[in-house]
Amino acid sequence: MAENTSPEPARVVVIDDHTTFAELLGQALDREQDLLHVGHAGSAAAAVELCRTVRPDVVVMDYHLQDGNGLDAAGAILQDSPQIRIIVLTGNPTPEILGRAAGSGICGFLPKDGSLQNLLDAVRFARPGGMMIHPSLLAVQQAPPEPDHHNLLTARERQVLSLMAAGNDVRANARLLGISENTCRGYVKSILAKLGAHTQLEAVAIAQRRHLLPGTTDA
Questions:
Q1: Is 148 contained in some domain?
Q2: Intra-chain end-to-end CA distance of the chain, in Å
Q3: 152-175 per-position pLDDT tens digit
Q4: In a designed cystine with 47, which of 15, 34, 58, 133 is the match (CB 3.0 to 4.6 A)?
Q5: Phi-psi region of 117 (alpha: psi -120 to 50; beta: other; left: phi over 0)
């Protein structure tokens, strides 16, 4: 008799104080063969306890919770179980929230009103150490741009930065630009240094605030 080699479905918990949203998302997860809904909590404190109990693979969590926010809850969960992949859902994040998210250890930052398929794909493909952010979350109202030199980035660095903002990884960016992955990583490193950023997400948030991305206007 052939041995079943199918991988176990990813175990997912949903953290949201809107019960209807959480129940509908749980039902959607259970309709997927490779995903399994294993619990729901409605507060940051309950989220931490639930994750300690059921040890999920992935957490989908609203940013706005009854007793705190999703990034605080994510920090507490990852302190206990750093292997858990956490995706935070939000509406219009401020540049400060985007910057904090970049260093929080979460794997994804998505719009709560986005498509179900995008969310399911994020649950499937989120990886520790990686960071997915939907481009729509960068299209938020910004404060007046900080003083900046118009020629801070080279033309090629601006191209790489634009592709980073679109959510592409280094391999995809290198292919699109017709350069090697090592060369593309060098551009990323230069961009981070010039913008004073520690991660690509933080660099994109800073560039958006300073109007360095296409579609924005330099002061």
A1: no
A2: 70
A3: 888 888 888 888 887 778 888 888
A4: 15
A5: alpha
